[in-house]
């Protein structure tokens, strides 16, 4: 079903902590009126959407695309890391929309990767991609799939597969819940502590905001010191200032991320590059480059050289690129 290309659109990137909204005047227009609303302030997604529209005072949208941190199968959506639950059909009707598209947030972010500007991504120090490839050109000239991973409230994983006739196919999976593996005895001890707490230790149990808190607490208790009552942001800040246990926890977080990211790149054959998003790593700056991430990313035995040829980019865009990915979905008939 086709829609008026001049119809206004509502775009959203909804995580477990914050919902980022933007308004788009028409097809191809730059998203504007970006605002971030804390999810905890609103009982339902509908109330958050209404609050945003009341704030920005733009014409009511006719179309909407929501990128959400959750699997999207069928009509009913229940968020994994937040209490919001809704029917897509009911929400479309209640908001007076002709069309409402709902997709996984990392699938939306993946769709935006080809459009990232040079100042919206940073090449990880120590990368030695194929010397015959101009990495500054980004994925537009990539000869293979792109991989995407990012830690925030949860651990998002996606990718883009190049289509034979041009364009890209996003992957909407739940790779953040794969089983996390240890690479040495110390990590095995940490995983055993997490297993006592959670049962199954998925990658997200360590590589997320809550995971960083758990790592910090486990390391403190292992050294018989009392942990501070810190959240992930406070642990990261303390780590950057040299706090011993906080720094150790953040370095372990980055090492685990390297292991999982390397597995992802191998699984997808991501010769076009690995991209790191989410709310944690982009804020670490050069500290991240100095961690074990890079070594753990390439430490895959006989396939070390294969991974060394894959460029790794950290997404540093100020505006959520997932909003642009959501806008792309509305371009499809």
TrEMBL record:
Pfam families tied to this protein: Glucokinase
Gene3D superfamilies cross-referenced by the UniProt entry: 3.30.420.40, 3.40.367.20
One of the protein's GO biological processes: glycolytic process
An example Gene Ontology CC term for this record: cytosol
Highest taxon in the source lineage: Bacteria
Catalytic reaction(s) noted: D-glucose + ATP = D-glucose 6-phosphate + ADP + H(+)
InterPro entries hit by this protein: ATPase_NBD, Bacterial_glucokinase, Glucokinase
tRNA processing is among the record's keywords: no
UniProt-recorded Gene Ontology molecular function terms: ATP binding; D-glucose binding; glucokinase activity
Binding site for ATP: 12-17
Enzyme nomenclature, EC number: 2.7.1.2
Assigned keywords, A-Z: ATP-binding, Cytoplasm, Glycolysis, Kinase, Nucleotide-binding, Transferase
Compartments, as annotated in UniProt: Cytoplasm
Family of this protein: Belongs to the bacterial glucokinase family.
Protein name, entry field: Glucokinase
Organism, scientific name: Serpentinimonas raichei
Organism placement in taxonomy: Bacteria, Pseudomonadati, Pseudomonadota, Betaproteobacteria, Burkholderiales
């Amino acid at each position: 079903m086709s829609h008026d290309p001049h119809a206004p659109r509502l775009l959203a990137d909804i995580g477990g902590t914050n919902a980022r909204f933007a308004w788009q005047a028409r097809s191809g227009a730059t998203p504007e009126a970006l605002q971030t609303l804390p999810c905890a302030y609103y009982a339902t997604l509908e109330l958050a959407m209404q609050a945003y529209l009341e704030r920005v005072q733009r014409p009511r949208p006719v179309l909407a695309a929501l990128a959400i941190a959750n699997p999207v199968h069928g009509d009913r959506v229940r968020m994994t890391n937040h209490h919001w639950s809704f029917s897509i059909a009911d929400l479309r009707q209640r908001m007076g929309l002709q069309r409402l598209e709902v997709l996984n947030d990392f699938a939306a972010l993946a769709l935006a990767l080809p459009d990232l500007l040079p100042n919206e991504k940073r090449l990880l120090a120590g990368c030695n991609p194929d010397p015959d490839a101009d990495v500054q050109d980004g994925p537009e000239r990539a000869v293979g799939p792109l991989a995407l991973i990012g830690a925030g409230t949860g651990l998002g994983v996606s990718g883009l597969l190049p289509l034979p006739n041009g364009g890209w196919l996003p992957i909407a999976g739940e790779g953040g819940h794969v089983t996390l593996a240890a690479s040495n005895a110390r990590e095995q001890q940490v995983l055993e502590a997490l297993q006592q707490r959670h049962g199954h230790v998925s990658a997200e149990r360590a590589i997320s905001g809550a995971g960083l808190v758990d790592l910090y607490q486990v390391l403190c208790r292992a050294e018989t010191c009392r942990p501070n009552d810190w959240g992930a942001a406070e642990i990261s800040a303390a780590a950057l200032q040299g706090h011993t246990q906080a720094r150790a926890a953040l370095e372990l977080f980055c090492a685990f991320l390297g292991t999982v990211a390397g597995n992802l790149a191998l699984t997808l054959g991501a010769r076009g590059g690995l991209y790191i998003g989410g709310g944690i790593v982009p804020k670490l700056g050069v500290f991240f480059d100095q961690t074990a991430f890079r070594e753990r990313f390439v430490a895959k035995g006989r396939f070390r050289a294969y991974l060394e040829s894959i460029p790794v980019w950290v997404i540093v865009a100020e505006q959520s690129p997932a909003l642009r990915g959501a806008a792309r979905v509305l371009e499809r008939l």
